[in-house]
Amino acid sequence: MEGWDPLRWSVLDALRVSLVLARPDLDAPGGPAAVLEVFRLGDVGEQCALARSLQFLPRAEDYVWQAGECCRSNMTEVFTAMACDNAFPVRWFDDVAWRALVVKAIFVGAPLASVYGLDERLSEDLARMALDLADERRSAGREVQPTLWLCLGHFGGERALASLERELAGGPPRAGAPRPWRSDAPARARPSSGTSRASRTPRCWPPCAPRSTRRRPRPRSSPSSPRPERRAGRLLAAMKFFDPHIHLTSRTTDDLAAMAAAGIRAVVEPAFWIGQPRTNVGSFVDYFASLIGWERFRASQFGIAHYCAIGLNSKEANNEALAEQVLELVPRYALKEGVVAIGEIGFDEITAAEERAYRVQLQLAVDHEMVVMIHSPHRDKKRGVQLSIDIAREMGLPMERLVVDHNNEETVRDTLESGAWAGFTIYPHTKMDSARMVEVVRQYGPERIIVDSSADWGISDPLAVPRTAALMRERGLDEEAIRLTTWQNALDAYAQSGQIDVDALAGDAVIDQTQTFLDNSVLRGQEPQRTTTGA
């Protein structure tokens, strides 16, 4: 078959694919569903075999969604099996899915030369995405992958030439080349609340003035270290912190104790993808219920005020049949106590299905005057952020109620100039680190910039916010800039929901571990604490 190259196949791969092709029902009306059911709970090797077999199967159009799932997989082996030496994508993917596959191949280091049909489907949009990725990696101080230039062909124009010259020279871009940062970015004013829902919240919240009696902290390890040592609690012990994007359902009680010791007083936990596709709407029912119930209780047992955001995440919006059911479910939970936003929603692969789910949930937010938390895509981030903002503005969402998260140096200007809040996810090795965050605040000022951890089930740091604050102080940012970006801005943004008791957060945390939730306790034989603790 043209495009098929078994060079990277193992004997086990060949046997598994042969078993699939031996099925007698492949061309029957129910054949594709039967094949997919066999692989529904498969391990990585079995999922790779499914990806490799699709190019040989009849009724190929019935497998396009599953092929897209393989490309959205976080398992590099599964993605590579679908993307490389496989004729299915070039024949059946639309332009959006094809471009996403190619850019992800660059992103994860898959062999781009093995993406069959790449030369046939080069385009201006693909060249733009590749050059955006090059700019983003340079802004982050990372190497631009050499295979990236295979995506350009004759479509890159002057911008491609300038980018390539910069790579070859290893210096600044020549005159007229695009620059990732502005050195003359003006200071930006905080947006007014100006909505009826926001008017139910005090407009001037009590500041959390830091006590400056401690000497300047000298952290033991790098601020972006993923190890949550309890000593982090002494980095900036005089300050309170708000982590407005963290997935506590993935974290342990040790993490919660370390967070409380480090001064984290409040968090927002947005609904997100749990690491593997959910297969029925009931799993969303239980997950949403845990965000407003058990997780809220669990955080309270360590003196952390827990709020959440409810929404259908962009990645799972691509399962359109399931998404329809979840979108009907979202309003039931989004209007409950403790829910401060719709989120995290937006784009992942920037597909039509993602846009539809985004618009439905934006409309819910507009109708109920709610804050919206945006997930910006990992690839083609700049376009994803611009599209998210444009659609939100088109649908009538006030920009002061829009929080765009996972920003980087390439997107911060677009976000701030729109009037939205700019969230930055601090990860040990990706997206944004503490040192780069310091420079962003130095460049753009602290107004409407929010630091968060997005700590989840992967390698991430639940103490990223206080660690970044410590580095800000160490590198000379003033105390007010630190307070705004790690406490006040998040409070200002999400208090618009009317769901946050601002006066209570300004006071000390009350811990009562004699309490239970549906007769469950976080304790396992320990003596319960009943304390009032200051930051």
Word description of this protein:
The protein is an alpha/beta fold and 535 residues long. Helices cover 41% and strands 9% of the residues. It contains 20 helices and ten strands. An eight-stranded parallel β-sheet has the order 1-2-3-4-5-6-7-8. Helix 7 (95-108) packs parallel to helix 8 (124-139). The longest helix has 16 residues, at 124-139. It is globular.
**What's the rounded overall pLDDT mean?**
85
Largest sheet: 8 strands, parallel
Q: Compute the number of helices.
A: 20
How far apart the termini lie comes to: 66 Å
Which structural class matches the secondary elements? alpha/beta
Question: What general form does the structure show?
Answer: globular
Main β-sheet, spatial strand arrangement: 1-2-3-4-5-6-7-8
Low-confidence stretches: 172-235
What proportion of the residues form beta strands (DSSP E)? 5-15%
- Strand tally: 10
Q: Radius of gyration, Cα only, in angstroms?
A: 24 Å
Task: Write down the secondary-structure element order.
Answer: HHHHHHHHHEHEHHEHEHEHEHEHEHHHEE
Please specify the SSE layout and strand pairing.
Elements: H1 11-21, H2 31-39, H3 44-53, H4 64-72, H5 76-83, H6 88-92, H7 95-108, H8 124-139, H9 157-169, E1 241-243, H10 253-261, E2 264-270, H11 281-292, H12 294-300, E3 305-310, H13 320-334, E4 339-346, H14 352-367, E5 371-375, H15 381-394, E6 402-405, H16 412-418, E7 421-425, H17 434-444, E8 449-452, H18 464-474, H19 479-494, H20 502-506, E9 509-512, E10 530-533
Parallel strand pairs: 1-2, 2-3, 3-4, 4-5, 5-6, 6-7, 7-8
Antiparallel strand pairs: 9-10
